[in-house]
Each structure stands twice: as C-alpha cells, then as structure tokens.
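Help wanted!
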Amino acid sequence: MSNTPTLQKTIMTDSTRLKPLTTNAGTASEPSETAIAANHINIFYGAFKAIADVSMAVEARKITAIIGPSGCGKSTMLRAFNRMNDFVPTARVEGEILLHGQNLYAPGVDPVEVRRRVGMVFQKPNPFPKSIYDNIAWAARLNGYRGDMDKLVEESLRAAALWDEVKDKLKQSGLSLSGGQQQRLCIARTIAIRPEIILMDEPCSALDPIATIKIEELMQELKQRYTIIIVTHNMQQAARVSDRTAMMMLTEDGKRSGTLIEFDDTNVIFTRPKDKRTEDYVSGRFG
Amino acid sequence: MATTSHRLHFDQELHDLQDNLLRMASLVDSAIAHALQALADQDLDLARQIAIEDARINEIRFKIEEQCLLLIAREQPVATDLRAIVAALNIAGEIERMGDHAAGIAKTVLRMGVQAPIMPLIDLNRMADESRSMLRTALDACVKRDSELAQSVAWRDDVIDGLYQDVFRQIVGLIADDPAITTRAMYLLFAGHNLERIGDRCVNIAERVIFINSGTMKELSAGPDEHL
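Answered by r_m:
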C-alpha cells in the first residue's frame, strides 16, 4: 500500500485552506449543487499560457458541454479536471480544481485517486486488447474492487447500454466490436470504477450517426447518476445533449490563450447568447 | 472586430426569405389600397381582383413556410438566425391574415353591390393609410432589425384604434337616426373592423422584430380595454 495521501485523506485534513469559489462567467437560473469547479485556472506549456483565468462551476448530475474553435484550449481545460495534463512534462497548472471543495492540485493529493473519481472517455475508442469481460474487470480489480465481478461487469455493461449486444460473447476481444460498441465499452469500463465525474473528449467524433445517437442517449441515462463534462466540436451535439454550455475562445490580447467567454444554460447559449463572439461561433459565422 | 460570415449560402437563403416577406407585404399593401378604392367607387371588378390577389398572397405564405422548414432542417440555425426564421414564420402568418382582412373588405363591397356608402369614407381612408404605413414601417424595422422603429409601430396603433372608435360612434349615430340603413351601415363597420385588425397585426409583426433582436417576446399592443 502506497504511503501517498489519498484524496479522501486530504479532504479530511486539508479543507480549511481553500479559498471561496468565484466564477467569471455565466449565471445559474437557480441554486444547484456544484460537483466540480475550476477556480482561476491558468495552464502553461512551458512559457506558453494555454489557458487564461478560467473559472466555472460544473453542476452535479448535469451535462456540461465545452465548445469553441480549434486550438482554444477545450481539451486542455477538460484534462485539467482530472490532472491528465500531469502527463505532459512541460505542463504547469495554476489555480484550483475543487471537488467537494477540495483542491485536486493541492500538495499530497494522489492523481491516480483523482482519475478514479473523475473518469475520462477519449475521442478514439481505446479498449484494452483483452476480452470484453476483462476490459471491465481488469480496471475494476486494479482499482481495488473485490466484490462479485460478474455482477459488476453486467451492471456496467447494462449502464452503458451494451449488455444486450455482448452478453453472449463476453470472452471475445473488445477490439472485435464496432467503433460505437467499443466506445460504449470504454464508458462501461469508466463506470465500473464508480467515478463521480465523467469527462468526455469528443467521444463521438470517430462514430457514425447511429452510434453517435446511441452515445448521446446513453449520456442522458448516465446523467441521472453522474456529472458529465463533454468537449465537442459538434454544435448540434452540444445543443442536443447538454444542460449547460461553456464557450471558450482565444484571448484577443495577442497571447492567444484559451479563456472562457460565456457559460450559461444551453438553452440560452443556442437561442440568445449574450456575447457576440458566442453568437458568431454557434451560428457558424465565426471569423 | 469585423465578422466575416462563413455561411454565404445560408445568408443568401435568409435574404431570399426576407425578400419573400417583403413581396408578400407589398401585395397586401396594394390589396388594402385597392379595397378602399373599390369601397369608395363601388368597383366590383376591382373587388373581385382583390380576391384573386389574395390567393397569390396565400401562395407566398406557403412558400415562406416551406423555406423556413427547409432552413431549419438543413441549416440547423441557432441564436439570431433561429429567431429570425421562427419570426418569419409568424410574420408570414400575420401578413397573410392582413391579406384576408383586405379580401374581407372586398367581399363587403361585393355584398353592397353598387350602393354608395352611407357616409364619407374619410376616417376609413385614414385608417387604411395609417395601417399601410404601419405595415411598411414594421417590415422596414424587420429588415433593419430596428427595435425602436418596431416600438413606434405599436404607438401608432393607438391612432387606428381612435379612428375606429370614431367610425363606430358615427355609424351607431346614423343607425339610431335611420334604422333602415342598418345593413349598409354594418358593411362599413365590418370594413373598419378589418382595418383595425390590420393595425393589430402590424403590432404583432413589430413584437416579432423585437423578439429577433432581444430573444424575448414583449407585448406591445394596448390592453383589451382600449379596444372596442
């Protein structure tokens, strides 16, 4: 057992140091529970400031979409929510990501534990080169699950709306599935670890329209239990699936850092956005 | 920062949609003028012509609806574009109903036959002039996306309402003096009512213009107690 303090331990001992959360964009129509929040986040790759002062409170059990033009830092911002940027040697994060009020970047917080609680689904389906069953079981076992594995596999595959399609071929390779099925397998694998937040980085960009709709329908099911943050280039997808939308753009100060320019209910963003730049982007007139 | 549209084809389609609204409004503008002329001159041929023109107006309305459906289905408009298309659907309906009101006056002319109106059409002509001007202003506000101009349309509706009340009182007085003219008097009242409704529909268009600009629907018309 590692001596690295777990997130849970840190929450119990370190919560009094946190600053009050503020947001720099958007207003919620009614008070709601915040699942995870960025507080004045700046992200650097070496000397380059990729993200400039982003604050946003992500509501629990809602789908929050992050949209914006290519290169505006959407994925970088998404990865900040579970410390995936730690894998980039030159990356440096300032500010706080607060999960239940606890800063995930505080000293001593275990990034592996962070990623267990804040799971991620990637653009390209990436099942392990193992059986469908083991894709779920292996990750769960690695994360310390010691319960009824058959039950966990079935529950996870059912939750990912994949059980009926694979229940008779659980020993087949996960790679034998179609792209859409592979992505749902990856979602099942994420769910099996019982995260609180699921990050999705363009999860449908490699899928055909039918597979895309299945994932979108699945997201609506999953948000009953999980908080989802999705990065998407597909405006219609953001409009269809999300409850809240964060619009990011590059700053116009010549530094070309990504920043949050508007964050509001998706209904507002796609019918009467407040910022002209959001209006131009969502209506395809950005330029 | 100047914005360069990346959707030139879509912009052209929106422009065509607006052109059809203007074409439809222009036909209704003429129909109102012709209706009052037919009423003043007991011109039955002109009254029949208005009914034919009304069919053309209806055709354009259907064309606009089809354009809107295709734009929504194919272009997935959002924000201002979506509001403009939804507003165009409503505005086309309002203009089409104005055409029906003009046709309603023409039918009154046909029912009256060659009988001269029981009183000078001074106030009815003023109502027609005012409503036509309001229609043009409302469409102008739509093209320019000018909320202040749209608001001015609503204020002018009070003029039409006032004229209609004058017409109503005059006609009631004439009927009281000579009940034998009741039927002919009611024909003129119908004409006045149609013109008053045209004014209301101009206000509805103005409300849609403000909706396009602001994203919120705002009631501009006077309360029901102020109407007859």
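OP: Thanks! One thing I noticed: Chain B has one domain: 4-227.
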